[in-house]
Amino acid sequence: MPENNGAPEAAGGIRVGDVSGTVVVGSNNTVSIVQGAPLPDPVKRRPISQLPRSAGEPLIGRARDVEVLREAVGTRQLVQVWGASGVGKSALLRHLAHELPRGPEGAAYVEAGGRTADDLAQALFDISFDAPNYKPSLEVLKEHLKTLRLRIYLDDAGLDEKDLRRLFDMAEQSTFVFTSQQRSAVDGVHAIRLDGLTAPAATELVEALLPRALRPDEARIVPALCDAVHGNPLRLRRIALSAATGKGLPGIADLPELLPALLNRLGPQERDLLYLLGSLSGAELAARHLNELLGLPDADALAGGLVRHGLLLASETGYSCPPDVAECVLNVRKTVFPADRLCRVLTTWVEAKDTTPDDLAAHFQALDAVVLRAERSGHAPLGAALARAASPKLALSRQFDAWGSLLGAGWSAARSAGDKEGEEFFLHEARTRRRALGRAAQTTALVLEAEVLWRELAALHAHSAGQQAAGAASAVTPPAHAVAPSAHAVTPTAHAVTPTHGVGGTHAVTHSTVPTSATSAPVHASAPAHASVPAHAARPVIDLSQASAQPQVAAHATGVHAAAPVPRRIDLSAHPSVTHSPHAAGTAPTATSAGHAGLSAAGAAGAAGAKGGISALALACALGAVAVLGVGAAVYANDRTDPSSALPPRPVVASVPVDSPSPTPTVDPVCATVIPDLSSETQQFNTDAAIASGAVDSYNSDMDAYNAGESSTVPDSSTVLSDVSTVISDLNAMESTLQEAVSQAQDSSVQSDLYDMLTATQQIEGFYTSYQSDPGGSVVDTSSQASAMNSAADSLQNDCGA
Predict the structure, then answer these.
(1) Contact 644, 588 (CB under 8 A)
(2) Exposed, middle or buried: residue 594 (CB in 10 Å: 0-12, 13-18, 19+)?
(3) Which residue from 533, 634, 680, 685 could staple onto 730, CB 3.0 to 4.6 Å apart?
(4) Which residues pair with 228 in a beta bridge?
(5) Looking at 41-97, which runs of residues are DSSP E strands?
(6) pTM of the predicted model, to two decimals?
């Protein structure tokens, strides 16, 4: 579903802190930042209209639900339809989008599955404004979205509460109607549960799907079948297929084995289609892909029949396989669709001139899934090549979180393939993305930036893997020989951290770890180079004139080492803050090699089997630098070549934007209260974080002794957890102060600084809370948020005249 309605040749300027330029595609298929032109002036479309395709079938048994929702949408601003998978939420939402009155300025339907709040906000901007290939800064994006008065329909919005609230607040005058499987806890949301069909409606649905009328004996059993499947339309469709292809409706006792029986009755092409889509962990492919991968003349017709009978799911842009169908198909085949064929076909599609950036954005989950599958199955070079070919076009789609997810997957594949040139490519793209998101100012030392990029790519890779796992969450894992594990061999040993100079207060630490099981070694090969993006590809204009700290795409379960540089503590006292000093390459901290970004959450859990499986928290005593690892061991390593040595530093071009506002002659009154309050609260936070760090050191020492057999007493983690709770309380106090200050601030720059600090504080608090809730499965690194916090604090002091 294209969301970019702009002219393909448009170009323009970019502002990222003190960096100006245009995002372009270079001769090596690389996205770069160069000097550019003025920013465009977005023009609101009138009317705004993006609706789903009309349903081919009537909506059966939902008249009452439609009326309830019509009333709710007419009186409420935030309405949720929630319920079990297959209950008909998407079909109902599409119907509502066509049947309900539009908002004052129109309506927008967006398929939200797998997309972040920022990518969804950009999609709404593209739908609503005529601004070809323009990516506004977060602040400018908010200014535009808050003027909209739309009725917005979001299908499968899997965002957490904070991101949902943030998205709603950005388009504060619009009405949202969204679907998801779990009831939302966001304040102000009117949640309506969608239940299964009634017995009469189930009978009507089954009759509509059969090529004949129901026999009297069949009509009598439909209510019992409806009750057995809780009125789930997807399962009722399968029951109808059973009657159409067999002797009659199945009995209640036949339902557990109904799905395997149905699959056995399908033709070879239908089974191959389910096998292909079932291998993609819930990601979808378009009919064009299905035709090319399976050699079909008309995959649309074949897939449409499977959708009609509940064996496939259809969206605006393609088809996907329900988890239970995927499980059944893969258990029968005992394998998955060949990753090498997927890579080659999709790489050809990506490089085709008629494949647009929006096409890639619509299928970013499939690209992620295929790159991950290629790495796991011994075809890492092909996976890296696919990600490399797709990266520039996906960047041009302006869906930067989708782009980041692919960069993480591609970087991991390149490392597994031993492709150093490929690793450099993805690091370069990550640097460009980081600058475009306004994060460049957060890492002023270039060697520190290289380390941050390395850790961020590890986080993005974990995010893409997590998305694929979530897509197949309800399915049983395929046989062990069908999918090779993705984790790399890791055999931790004793390592030491050499103190860094001028970055943070870390000290030399040595911890022993419990060895984990090894997995297959990476394949060593070079990823082939690819042709550049066609010359006609659009160049997006990216404005980050007031860029605030973007949320980390994936900071939980990232498997990042605690050896990362520690950001300095916040100091909001009256004296000017001390800036970071540049560092020589020889002092740069390092981390593990070969893509082993520390112990992942799964790896930590696996290692926890030693001597009782106790976990612990390793806290660096500075604002929010946290890494949680299994078996009570803080793992530090310095056996990786610093990636900055392979990448020459890029000069930072200083510029003064033409449209920059003049300095405000007066100081916002909120400065007089917020800076003293925050100064005292952050000092308390740092004190309590230091105490927590000491408790962890003591706990780790006891755990080392326990793991080594020197002690028979299992260490008590209650002190550590209590100290973490105290830190969370400190962060809550800071959040309260910042929220009050944001609401009272009069100067827009001061308000933006406070909002950035609030966002970073909330994210850091979330990481501590995540550990507190699940100390055995948390792996987090909040150094990016700490850097964002420090950067915003410096800016606040400047804007307050400190």
Answers:
(1) yes
(2) middle
(3) 685
(4) none
(5) 43-44, 48-50, 78-82
(6) 0.62
